[in-house]
Amino acid sequence: MRRVSRDERTRVAFTLNGRPVSGEAESRMLLTDFLRHVIGATGTHVGCEHGVCGCCTVLIDGTAVRACLTLAVQAEGRAVTTVEALAAPDGTLNGLQRAFQEHHALQCGFCTPGILMSFTDYLARKPHPTEDEIREVLSGHLCRCTGYAGIVAAVLAASGQKSTEPSRSQP
Amino acid sequence: MKPRRFDYIRPDSVGEAVAVLAEHGDRANVLAGGQSLMAMLNLRIAEPAVLIDIARLAELDTIRVAGDAIEVGAAVTQNRLMGWPDLAAKLPLLAAALPFVGHFQTRNKGTVCGSIAHADPSSELPLVLATLGGSVVLRSQRGTRVLAAQDFQTGMLSTAREPDELIVAVRFPVQATKRVAFREVARRHGDFAIIAVAAAAESATKVRIGIGGVADRPAARAVALDSSGAVAAAFDELATELEGYDDMHASAAMRRDLLRRLGPLTVEEAMRCAA
Predict the structure, then answer these.
(1) How confident is the model at residue A169 (pLDDT cuts 50, 70, 90)?
(2) Cβ B35 vs Cβ B109: under 8 Å
(3) What order do you get walking across the sheet with B219-224 strand by strand?
(4) Final residue of a domain: which of A54, A85, A116?
(5) Looking at residues B94-105, what average pLDDT do you find?
(6) In angstroms, rounded to a whole number, what is the distance separating the alpha carbons of residues A31 and B75?
(7) Is the Cβ of B190 closer than 8 Å to some Cβ of chain A?
(8) Which of A79, A138, B62, B262 has the most CB atoms lying inside 10 A of its own CB?
(9) What is the mean pLDDT of residues B232-243?
(10) Has residue A168 been placed in a domain?
(11) Strands B28-31 and B50-53, sheet pairing
């Protein structure tokens, strides 16, 4: 039985983007804060901190989840993947990232890391999603810049498809 | 915001979890997927002294046939149940409702039992459980008891679970019909339902209907399709009886009006399906 008392700082270790990482955390520390402040991996963004905006979406054991609704201690022993894992070590963007760039799927970029991680999971399960399916996944994210049309076009392009419908403005 | 301090306990078995729960009772919250609870901790709406994490308990991560019901363990996520190969054949109403539960990303972690435990009046899963007449399995050191859905949820965010009891599973009765429909009105897909309506045919002349989002808990009843106006009359009666509530998304009057319109359409859709 794992116990972490309220005043204790405990060692938390997991795999981040294929590499072992560890650090000290209180029981109440969120995975978002652990990644950003303890590990220094600031690619994961923090928006609403109650699971609505989707900015902090990361993969845990390959599955897209909200890091703000996950305690650091819950990630123990897991494989966590963040946006830092997507580009090659030399900075070359992966296909999904390139499609985002080419289709104006971001402006300020604050929501982008979470959206990229959601579609990293989703496209691995469903390599050729329909536009409606893309919009359904996208409904778990808020983007205040793009109006979403560019994001839908980017995901279609990344999955080797073209948009067949005229763009709508809401997911 | 960030949660207040709490003691975190991750038991290695259901037995340990129940023992820890017996020790801490209502000072503790049980954490499974955390898609409602973690948000409430962050917002400091919930301030437990102890958090008991059951998400990793393999013995609760099971979907199995239990007599004439499907028993879903407390660690089973909503997306895992959605991907269960027998879902559409055995529980078509649940298959129709699950896509409305939160978002892809929250269903990846949110559990079926957690949604039932949270007992939000506009939640889809408590509505499906009530419509199908399912039940909740509770375990404590005193033993195991099974509560019918209508006895389990006692109001808005409140249930008949005792502080030392752990929800170990929920049971959805296997459906004999494929004639089902689920509809809801929400501001955006995945948002909390302003109202939700479930319909499942019991025969060619009888349908069970369920309504969520209007009262403080889901309402379910059987309607005989003996006259052309029977369905509309049933929803009209329910709209009056349930009264509805005002919030930032809709007035009580709008909820009643939506129910009168959406209800008959949902039943019609269910009855159009091939049996």
Answers:
(1) very low
(2) yes
(3) B180-185, B195-203, B206-212, B219-224
(4) A85
(5) 97
(6) 20
(7) yes
(8) A138
(9) 93
(10) no
(11) parallel
Name beta bridge partners: B139.
B144, B166
On whether the B7-53 domain is CATH 3.30.43.10, my answer is yes
CATH number for the domain whose boundaries are B180-272: 3.30.390.50
- A100 and A64 inside one domain: no
Structural domain count, chain A: 2
The DSSP result for B108-170, as a single string, is: TT-BHHHHHHHT-TT-HHHHHHHHHT-EEEEEETTEEEEEEHHHHEEETTEES--TT-EEEEE
pLDDT at B192 (0 to 100): 85
Give the β-pairing of A19-26 and A9-16. Answer: antiparallel
Does the model's ipTM exceed the 0.85 cut? Answer: yes
Instruction: Specify the amino acid at residue B52.
Output: I
What gap in Å lies between CA A110 and CA A107, rounded to an integer? 8
Query: Who's near B20: CB < 8 A, 6+ residues apart?
Result: A1, B9, B11, B28, B50, B52
Where are chain B's structural domains? Answer: 7-53, 58-173, 180-272
**Nearest-angstrom CA–CA distance, B9 and B51:** 6
What angle, rounded to 10 degrees, do the helices at A112-125 and A95-102 form? 130
A61's tokens: 């054991």
The Cα B33–Cα B31 span in angstroms is 6
Which chain A residues touch B190 with a CB distance below 8 Å? 136, 139-140
The type of residue at A13 is A
- A2 pairs with which residues across the strands? B10
- The domain in which residue A30 lies consists of 9-85
CB proximity list for A55: less than 8 A, separation 6 or greater: A44, A45, A46, A47, A48, A110, A111, A113, A114, A141, A142
Helix axis angle for A95-102 and A149-158, nearest 10°, is 140
Inter-chain CB proximity B109 and A4 less than 8 Å: no
Closest CA to B3 of A22, A30, A155, A120: A30
Looking at residue A57, which CATH number applies to its domain? 3.10.20.30
Contact B62/A at CB under 8 A: no
What is the pTM for the complete model shown? 0.95
DSSP annotation string for B10-48 = E-SSHHHHHHHHHHHGGGEEEESS-TTHHHHHHTTS---
Residue of A nearest to B54 (CA): A74
Q: CA-to-CA distance for A19 and B22, rounded, in angstroms? A: 39
Q: Is A26 in Cβ contact with B105 (below 8 Å)? A: no
